[in-house]
Amino acid sequence: MVYCNLYDYDQVREVISCLEKVPLTIAAIVSFVDPWCALAAQLASERGLSAFSAEAMRLMENKMKTRAVLKNTLHNPRYLALPAYAGGRIHSANKLLPVVVKYIDSNGSRDVFYCPDRSTLFRNFQIIANLYPEGTILIEEYLDGPQYIVEVLAVNGEINIVAVVAQEIQLINGHFIITGYNLLVDPDPDFMGKLMMAVKTILDKFGFKHGPCHLEMRNVKGTWKLIEVNPRISGAGMNDMIEIGLGINLVRETLRLAMGEKVDLEPKHRIPTYAEYLVADTTGILHRITGRREVEKDPNVKRVYIKPRRGKLITPPTSLGDRYAYVIATGETDEAARANARAAAGKIRFIYEPLDPAINNLIHSQT
Questions:
Q1: What are phi and psi of 84, to 5 degrees?
Q2: What is the band of 356 on the pLDDT scale with cuts at 50, 70, 90?
């Protein structure tokens, strides 16, 4: 592994050139991590490799540019963009209430707040403005309706919906935290037809022709609205879910596409699959975790992942990165898979020592 500053394009190019002198044959340049997906696509194009849609990816990496691309379409919510220093103009967003306020470069639900009224809007706007005083803040109308992740792999202009995953969302301390994912292994054809039309319209606006992306969509009274789009596969166990439920390893197929090889996106089976995530209720120092071995013996459980180690600080979630474990389980039906995953997750216990109340209050005042 060679370390370099990924924000310094010239340095990245120099490192790649050095690797070629080793000599190594570079067959593909790919990133699965924000915000370097567009950079990887650009570097691949410069070297004549099979390249993803770099400019479309660059637009997707910025929430303000995403809204501008979809201006005057049915798929945009009503929104307002303000510089961080323009807090005095927040009153112009009152007509949009309730709203979601977010930083334009946020990912994983970080720096995203639900604001039901003017006071919470003002407070949360100021929190983001203090973090990014030179940045731009988006204020979007809150969209009410079921939300889905749509995993896409575009191949030379052909848009392939590889998987659709329904999300279970909890509002925790003003933050949207996804705690459950239900893989739709046999979705209704009419549902899929309307969703495909919306996805194709959105990606056509971006000029996205080649590569991976995932869209978070809400169905608002029959109209598909875009929450956000990211130029990569969704993280946090999504590849495992898709492989368990459909037999498709989307990361592998993405790499094949990047290498100019033929991809295989045909489902090998259709097994109802659900992922349940665990979050902390209070702040403390982790001592130990119980229940994992018992859960792993459950024949319905296909994957158990636990992130924190002993001695780590754990807190209630302010972003998706604050989820500390997940269990992926299967069942005969969607309902059975959900029940199996939740029952298994309920057996995992985080044993930790609560922090001194003064320290706990200080941590929460900063989030």
A1: -60, -30
A2: low
Answer whether residue 361 shows pLDDT above 70. Answer: no
Q: Determine how many CB atoms are found less than 10 A away from the CB of residue 18.
A: 12
Q: What is the Cα–Cα distance from 83 to 76, expressed in whole angstroms?
A: 20
Tens digit of each residue's pLDDT (9 = 90 or more) over 245-283: 999 999 999 999 999 999 999 999 999 999 999 999 888
The one-letter code for the residue type at 310 is R
Give the whole-angstrom CA distance, residue 357 versus residue 337: 39
Contacts of 312 (CB under 8 A, 6+ apart): 285, 286
- pLDDT per residue as tens digits for the range 62-72: 999 999 999 99
| Global pTM value | 0.93
Q: What is the DSSP string of 269-324?
A: ----EEEEEE--SS-EEEEEEESHHHHHT-TTEEEEEE---TT-EE---SSGGG--
- Burial annotation 71-110 (CB, 10 A radius, 16+ → b, else e): eeeebbbebbebebeeeeebeebeebeebbbbbbbbbbbb
Helix count (H) and strand count (E) of the chain? 11, 15
d(CA 95, CA 208): 33
3-class DSSP state for residue 96? helix
Q: Which two tokens stand for residue 289?
A: 């975790």
E strands present in the chain:
79-83, 99-103, 112-115, 136-141, 147-155, 158-172, 175-183, 211-220, 223-230, 273-278, 284-290, 301-306, 313-314, 325-330, 349-354
Tokens linked to 26: 């570079």
| Angle at the Cα of 184 from the Cα atoms of 145 and 142, rounded to 5 degrees | 15
Across the range 323-348, mean pLDDT stands at 97
